[in-house]
Amino acid sequence: MKTIRILAVDDHEMTTLGYKYILEDSEFSTFNVKVEIAKSYDIGKEKIEFSARSLRYDIILLDIQMFPPQSKDPRSGVDLGLLARKIVPKSKIVFMSSFSDNYRINNIFKSVDPEGYMVKSEIDELSLKSMVETVIATPPYYSAGALAAVRRRMSSDIVLDDQDQKILYHLSLGVHTRDIGELIAIATTTVETRKRQLKSIFSIKNGNDLALIEEARKRGFL
Questions:
Q1: Which CATH number fits the domain 2-153, given the four candidates 2.60.120.10, 3.20.20.120, 3.40.50.2000, 3.40.50.2300?
Q2: Residue range 25-84, pLDDT digits in tens
Q3: What are phi and psi of 7, to 5 degrees?
Q4: Which residue from 13, 26, 14 is spatially nearest to 132, judged by alpha carbons?
């Protein structure tokens, strides 16, 4: 029987061990599953690069946040996903993350175009098994939260460029307008102008930033 090779990368080792024990103990009709784990960005990178020279992984499971929040290391699971796309393009990529916001999920879809996305709070034994079966046979596979983000975005007929989306995202995090320009490398006056344009696009009259954020969230941009 064929063996499906899976690499699970997450800085929380107990999480990857959970995936390993569940999937290797699950019964699949046409294949067996073997899961390798990596508990850091660098170990995951080494394993992905080694697989390009030997036996590639069928599925690569990636967390987004690879370092503690207080760490200043900017590398993430998205970077590993982009690396995998480049050197092992036939490997299927699935993100397993606690992040469920539209902005982050849709940006990952645009940059990495993964074969799956699961919100960690929605993962259980049945969904893990279903994810593997779907991704191997007929990808993509989305958990309910990820699918909702996709549908909200697709239902909107408004098109925003990358800078507009970044402005909305930083506003939703509580970043002051005067600080956003530095974060996305544009002038503060440009941020103010784009905010006024966004309020016009979303038909917000005399509303503050909270009204803009709420409307953007309803339309699937956050």
A1: 3.40.50.2300
A2: 999 999 999 999 999 999 999 999 999 998 999 999 999 998 887 777 888 999 999 999
A3: -110, 125
A4: 26
